[in-house]
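// run 5 | inverse folding | seed 20
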C-alpha cells in the first residue's frame, strides 16, 4: 500500500512537471 501511494505521488509529480513544461 505504501509503495503504491509513493508511486502514485511520483506519477502525479511527473505529470505536473510535464504539464508545467
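// decoded
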Amino acid at each position: 500500500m505504501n509503495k503504491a501511494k509513493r508511486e502514485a505521488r511520483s506519477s502525479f509529480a511527473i505529470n505536473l512537471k510535464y504539464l508545467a513544461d
